[in-house]
């Protein structure tokens, strides 16, 4: 590529970055204050109408982001595959699992789900509550916010474990008043080869799954959901950073959604206190993860062949 072409490419990237940054910042300052203001009213009175309005405002914010993806990242190609057994609806109630590689994963989920599924919430750290706008919005919109304690902290104060379970149960139950998609990144952290090696993960493309959060959600919501959905995301060009995505350095994203059948024995079990149930549940999740690992391998092989 010539020097002139390099300069033009760099200029386009700078222009794209400034456009995306300006629009997202402006959109956040436009949509954020109404969500926070309406959220404050819930301190005095619970209101389904307020919740619905906040979701509409949030979806408007997401719609701006999706518009940027469609119009500012014109060379991005999507390959989306949906299980025929999966009948998605904006009025549905879904639990969703997903592999986790990048901050872009959440943007992919939002892009896919905006017109197909209810607003996606996910388990997040309580510490995010202190991030201006973002943390408060998570709380107001009903994201289950978890205080993570180490084994040493729980051993020193066993009450912490019970308190966390109560808070998590309350957050999940609050979702039942409306359609929802509750996302759980079972790996608990973003995939890197270093983490994979440290874990000695038995999977080629995944970290070991942490089943406790899914077990809790199924215990509380299992008989009230329409489907357990597994989303698999593959970046044929390699896992991108958030900046890489918005600067247009990602050419293709592949998404696969499949419906997971929930065995009858899963519902109503006690993951925390029943060791036999816990082992059986973990084995079930391990099998789902093995199938997912094989699926990722097939997807990557497909794109490797198509690009050769």
Automatic annotation (TrEMBL):
- State a single Gene Ontology molecular function: acyltransferase activity
One Pfam family cited in the UniProt record for this chain: Acyltransferase
Coiled-coil spans are: none
Chain ranges of the Phospholipid/glycerol acyltransferase domain: 94-236
Protein name in the entry: Phospholipid/glycerol acyltransferase domain-containing protein
Origin species, per record, is: Acinetobacter baylyi (strain ATCC 33305 / BD413 / ADP1)
Taxonomic placement: Bacteria, Pseudomonadati, Pseudomonadota, Gammaproteobacteria, Moraxellales
